[in-house]
Amino acid sequence: MVELEGIVKYVVMPSSIVTIGVIAGFVLACIRPARRWGLSAGIVALATYAIFGAGPVSFFLLGSLEYRIPPATILEQKEIDTIAVLTGYAEYDIDYPLSSQVNSASAFRLLEVLKLFRSTPSSTVFISGAGEVPTIMRDVLVSSGVPAGQIRVDADSFSTFESARHLVPVLGKKPFLLVTSAGHMPRAIGAFRKVGTAPLPMPTHFLTRRNSRATPYFPSPGHLECSDLAFSEYAALVWYYVNGWI
Fold first, then answer.
1. What mean pLDDT is predicted for residues 121-139?
2. DSSP conformation class of 72
3. Which of 41, 48, 105, 239 is a good FRET partner for 187, with 20 to 30 A between their CA atoms?
4. Alpha-carbon distance 226 to 82, whole Å?
């Protein structure tokens, strides 16, 4: 199920359509009877890049997710002593310093956790994800001054819903701060509420501006990446709705 979710999310991304269109266009252009189809595939790829690589379009798509759920207020955060953070990506590499073994999504989430932890030094931090990523993120927190004894790691969750389900026994119904990327927050909040927990959103890693027109209009790979993230997240939201996970 998780593998199928990943395949669906990849196929619907605009960059995938661009890649497929370019490859198909080149191959078909080499076949004389199919050259017209090759031209059509190339036009589709170019149009996809022009539309979804444009700043306003990509910022609107991803911004609609990033600004959907505002962060918990200071009053809501008061006296909360549990922080749950969902993993991004990380990979052990002896050639890199520890801080460079996490990607930007993980780094922003860790920075938010550090800020929250310093406000409530008695907090317990739960890191949930799969494989070596949670452990690397834990090591970054420990190297930044968070006591190892106040960090718990769940390394068996291969999806957001699995993270929510696996943390139920330790989170219960007590309010806690949930840290993840802003574009991922709607799905994360939905999944954690579905299993009966009480998350307070603390979104981070914003990639867009609230005003979707306050960005360059010309297409760029960076804007296309924002559209990719948006399409991937919307596809995941549909998948979660269909499976009853939110």
1. 97
2. P
3. 48
4. 31
Cβ atoms 85, 126 nearer than 8 A: yes
| CA atoms of 171 and 177, how far apart (whole Å) | 10
Residues 39 and 153 in one domain: no
Secondary structure class of 12 (helix, strand, coil): coil
Bridge partner list, 180 = 203
**Number of domains within the chain:** 2
Find the helix packing angle between 35-52 and 14-29, rounded to 10°.
Answer: 160
pTM of structure: 0.93
Total residues belonging to the chain: 246
Which of 134, 245, 141 has its CA nearest to residue 191?
245
Structure tokens at 38: 């090759």
104 domain residue, yes or no: yes
Share of the chain above pLDDT 90, in %: 88
Compute φ and ψ for 102, nearest 5 degrees: -110, 150
Domain that holds residue 235: 2-66+219-243
Q: How far is CA 65 from the centre of its chain?
A: 11
Smallest CA-to-CA distance from 117 within 7, 202, 38 is with 202
Q: How far apart, in whole angstroms, are the C-alpha atoms of residue 123 and residue 150?
A: 7
Q: Where are the beta strands (DSSP E) in 6-115?
A: 82-86
